[in-house]
Amino acid sequence: MSVLADPREELVTIAAIRRPRGLRGEVVATSLSDYPERFAPGVPVWLRPPRGTARAAVIERAWFHKGNVILKFVGLDHINAVESLAGHQVCVPLSARVIPPPDEFFQDDLIGCRVELESGEVVGTVVDVAPYGGGTLVVERIHPDGRRQECLVPFVRAICTSVDVVAKWIRISPPEGLLD
């Protein structure tokens, strides 16, 4: 079992606990990770409530069932021990996050990126990623007159030609009319 990072480090949510399952301390959670190995036995996690302080836990076992992940944590062996976990997030430190393959990005890394044209002209900032067509950037534009406008930019290579999530920018080559 590895040691958890300092709880003050930024946490990344990998699952959301929905409810207890059975009497032996298992919970039903929605997986927010594309990497099932995040739920391997012995993986240390933080259980973060909607309000309050996160607490450390270790995954004892996990399996996928009907689109959910069933989790059992070490030492939480009865329904009474997990009833209060509904609504908690299962988190790992940002430093323990899986590194995605080249040309794949986490949605939360795209949010906050400056969007600019190939010419360098700033279009706006990514405020969300919508699930349309595999991923669409919701870009907030602020016009010179102060008017705000949201526009949708498909997150595809033909349009989003360069992405640097570390420097927080996305360069686009939009087809005519996309930003109107």
UniProtKB/TrEMBL annotation:
All copies of domain RimM N-terminal, residue ranges: 14-94
Subcellular location, record wording: Cytoplasm
Domain of life: Bacteria
All copies of domain Ribosome maturation factor RimM PRC barrel, residue ranges: 108-178
Subunit structure: Binds ribosomal protein uS19.
Domain notes: The PRC barrel domain binds ribosomal protein uS19.
Pfam families named among the record's database cross-references: PRC_RimM, RimM
Protein family per UniProt: Belongs to the RimM family.
Record protein name field: Ribosome maturation factor RimM
PANTHER family for the chain: RIBOSOME MATURATION FACTOR RIMM (PTHR33692:SF1)
One MF annotation (Gene Ontology) recorded for this entry: ribosome binding
Cellular component terms per the entry's GO annotation: cytoplasm; ribosome
NCBIfam families: 16S_RimM
Function of the protein: An accessory protein needed during the final step in the assembly of 30S ribosomal subunit, possibly for assembly of the head region. Essential for efficient processing of 16S rRNA. May be needed both before and after RbfA during the maturation of 16S rRNA. It has affinity for free ribosomal 30S subunits but not for 70S ribosomes.
Principal place of residence: cytoplasm
Keywords per UniProt: Chaperone, Cytoplasm, Ribosome biogenesis, rRNA processing
An annotated GO BP: ribosomal small subunit biogenesis
The keyword Disulfide bond is assigned to this record: no
